[in-house]
Amino acid sequence: xxxxxxxxxxxxxxxxxxxxxxxxxxxxxxxxxxxxxxxxxxxxxxxxxxxxxxxxxxxxxxxxxxxxxxxxxxxxxxxxxxxxxxxxxxxxxxxxxxxxxxxxxxxxxxxxxxxxxxxxxxxxxxxxxxxxxxxxxxxxxxxxxxxxxxxxxxxxxxxxxxxxxxxxxxxxxxxxxxxxxxxxxxxxxxxxxxxxxxxxxxxxxxxxxxxxxxxxxxxxxxxxxxxxxxxxxxxxxxxxxxxxxxxxxxxxxxxxxxxxxxxxxxxxxxxxxxxxxxxxxxxxxxxxxxxxxxxxxxxx
Length: 300
What we know:
Distance between the termini: 60 Å
Shape: elongated
Number of strands: 7
Mean pLDDT: 76
C-alpha cells in the first residue's frame, strides 16, 4: 500500500473513531437516563439500567451511521485544510478526485462490515434488551424499534398478542397500519389493515378497517381495539431516539459551518446541504416524529 493511502486512511479512521465514540457516549448517557426514569418506582439492582443501556445503544448507533460517516468526512477535510495537507498532496500530483476515491473505498468497506456484522450484533442485543425489559412491565408489553419499514409494536391484551406495524406516526394517529392478532398459542386470529388509526387514547379507533379472518375479508367503517399504548406513551418510548437524532443533526451543522469558515465555495455548500436533505427525506418517518417532539408534553 502506498504511503499517501496509508496516511489518508489513518486520518479518516481517527476522525471516524472519534465521532463514533462521541455518539456512542451520548447514546449511552441518554439511554441510562431513560432507564433510570423507567425503573424509578421499581426495586432493582444498580447494574440493570447500565446493562440495558449498553444493550440498547448499538441499535440506535446503527441508525446514526450515515451521520457519523458524514461528520467524520467533514472532520477529515477540516484537518486537511487547517494543516494545508491538501496543498501538499496537490503539489505531489495527487488530485482531489483520488482522495475522494480513497474515502469512498474506505466507506464502502466499512459499510459492508457494518451491514453484515454490526447489524446482526445490534439486532441480537436489541432482542435481549426487549426480553429483559418486558419482564418489568406489569402487562408484559414492549415497543419494538423503528426500522426502515416503520414503527413496530408488540402488545398483549386479554391473552392475545398484537403485532402492529405502521409506516409513520402523526400526532394521535398511526398511518398505513397493519395489525396481526394472535391467540395465547401464537396462532393467527385475524389481520386488520387501515390507512388511519386514532391512538389518542388506549382504546384505538380504526377507520375503514379491512379485516381478514378465517379466509374471509370484511370491511367496517370503524372498529375499536384496546391497547396498552397511546400516542403519549409511544412518544415517551421514542424520546431517546429523537434526542440523539437531533444531536447528530446539530453536530453536522456545526461542522458544516466550520467548513464554510475555511473557505468552501457556494457549490460545495449546496452539495453538502443537498446530502443532508437526502438523509432527511430517507428518514421521513423519523423526522416526522422529531418535528412533533417539541409539542407540549402531556402527563399520563
